[in-house]
Amino acid sequence: MIRLGENIKKYRQQKDMTQTQLASVFNVSEQAVSRWENGNTYPDISLLPAIADYFGISIDELMGMENYKDERETDKLISLVKDNERKGLIRENVRLLLDASVRYPKNYVILSYLVGQLVFEQCETEAENRANNEKAVEIADRIINECTDRNIWNYTINEKIIALTNLGRSEEAIRIANEQPNIWETREVRLSNLYSGDELISCCKNNLKQYAVLMYWTILKLADLDFLNEKLSISERINISKKALDVLELVFEDNFGIASRNAAQMNRFIAAMYALEENTASTLEHLEKAAEYAIKYDTMPETVTLTSVLLSGSEDRRSTITKNFTGNECTELYKRLSQERYNFVRNDKRFKAIEKQLEKYIIVE
Q1: DSSP labels for 259-323?
Q2: Helix, strand, coil tally for the chain in percent (to 5)
Q3: Which CATH number does the domain housing residue 146 bear?
Q4: pLDDT number for residue 67
């Protein structure tokens, strides 16, 4: 976008000049300068090199094309980053964004994406993970101290909290988290109280999808699948985990869309716990469901129209999926089936059928 008028005014004011004084320099009327700055007319093309030289800038800078080029480069880079996210190429994104951050050290869009990718990347060693998170905190602090864009600022705060947690700096992370708005003050809640008609329906459906997945993750934490809470029995963990599936089924019914991944993972978790008890029937039942939803997720078309009572007509798009690994859900489930916990059902026909079914979709890395 050409910003010639805005820039003439900006650079004139930086020189502490009046329109009359600038008009005198270029032998034009004060009204001509006023029209330039208001965008009603442009200076004669032959004057542009002289005006740029007088202000000590390039013609591109005078025209506002410098920022335009930066914006185009940023858009192109972020488009590539998002495409890599869908493919799980996070390390490549970190490399691209680090290079770009050197060229554009004040571009907070690029810097905020870099923070997110540094936190998201799964490194091969703990030392690399730590270095990534330390770098993320360092860049996040720059953004928080300098950036005035509220959306970028909020996103960066959240990524900083994750990075601090990953670094074991929990007290600092908790302090910052406690300073953030509560759930009732979020955009989703506010807009659902302001919209009406079709906008309200669309807002509520989108909110429900997010709330369902949020409840899923909250219940997952209560299930304590890392076995840190010695008070919980395996049976209690299984029962809590099943509640997460109940939430998904309530909202999505049997058409989960992107949430098929959550359904696949939870059934895999439940199967793993039943395997600890060597419960053959329940282990196989949930492995079969895990495979079913993993396949649905991995073979999902670009657009899925949801059909549940609550979400009817709402769409999920494959292009919004991001991951920090290059495999897929079927590959992950297939790998887990090799664990010793499943030895007691390994020769079962149903178990072999699950393996055979998944083999059609696994990705060899």
Answers
A1: GHHHHHHHHHHHHHHHHHTT-HHHHHHHHHHHHHHHHHHHT--SEEE--STTTTT-EEEGGG---
A2: 70, 0, 25
A3: 1.25.40.10
A4: 57
pLDDT along the chain (365 residues), means of 10: 80 90 91 90 88 86 67 88 94 95 89 97 95 97 92 96 97 96 93 95 96 97 93 96 97 96 97 97 98 97 96 94 91 96 97 97 83
Joined tokens for residue 222: 């209560």
Q: What angle do CA 327, 330, 332 make, to 5 degrees?
A: 60
> How many domains, in total, are found in the chain?
3
Residues 234 and 329 in one domain: yes
* Pair 327, 274 in one domain: yes
Instruction: From residue 238, give the alpha-carbon distance in Å to each of 193, 211, 248, 283, 358.
Output: 37, 22, 16, 11, 24
Q: Which residues lie closer than 8 Å to 245 by C-beta, 6 or more apart? A: 263, 266, 267, 270
